[in-house]
Specification:
Pfam families: Ribosomal_L30, Ribosomal_L30_N. The protein has helices at 78-139, 180-188, 200-210, 225-232, 240-248, 254-260, 293-300, and strands spanning 9-11, 16-17, 26-27, 32-34, 151-156, 172-177, 193-196, 212-215, 218-221, 264-265, 287-288. The chain has 301 residues and is α+β, with helices and mostly antiparallel strands. A five-stranded mixed beta sheet has the order 10-6-5-7-11. It has a two-stranded antiparallel ribbon with strand order 1-4. The longest helix has 62 residues, at 78-139.
Length: 301
Amino acid sequence: MSPPAHQSTTTRRGPKLFSAVGSPPQTLATKPLLHNQPFPLPPPPASTSALHSPHVPLSYPARPGKMSSEVAKVAVPESVLRKQKREEQWAVEKKEKALAEKKKSIKSRKLIFTRAKQYAKEYDAQEKELVQLKREARLKGGFYVSPEVKLLFVVRIRGKILQLLRLRQIFNGVFLKVNKATINMLRRVEPYAAYGYPNLKSVRELIYKMGYGKLNKQRIPLSNNQVIEAGLGKHNIICIEDLVHEIMIVGPHFKEANNFLWPFKLKAPLGGLKKKRNHYVEGGDAGNRENYINELIKRMN
């Protein structure tokens, strides 16, 4: 059958055959192919079952020979033995140290809870005694005079002096022990600072929320009792409640505890300051505001 007129034909030439030396090459018979017609596909492969036929020999890797039962002993270097012994000794020491620290932590925790309860009872007893004395004075027709304060909290509000009071930046705050020298210093710098008598709540919130300790001349947050024990353990101050108590009652180690505390870096007071150039009694912010310092601490904490 001849192809259509619009399609051209192409003759596919087969491989050349050589029958003898010197004879001309011959070609296999080929069929004409049409353009755009695919080449004929090769025949499908033989069934894969023939590969697994028992008549087809299969080759396997050679089976390794049996290894000798005797293993050659390799001499371990002496440095490796010393290193192993040293690491074992370190592991034992580390385990013993961890166990000792755990026992110490349990013992310290019990002591801390006991002291916290004791301080709470002491503060409650002081408040009840104060209320009772005021009632007795009122019944007798008199007035109760509060005992002389021992503690001051000073906040720097302006100026660039006050280095002796550790107030090196605006809105720095420190605790001070009330004595003649302190009062004289505060009178000299009254236009640059606000101060008063903090209560237990203010002292506790300042130390818990804004407190930093001084260890190796570094500012360390009071995130755990280990920091306090490292700095004040020799003065029997091992936890944050011990520190609050020592500051609040102005105890025998107040100087060491106060120096351990880094000056408080307070925030700008909520609502701002009124007139920091004027004294508090004149409607300003500077000077002694006695118990009203707690309201300022609350706004700056």
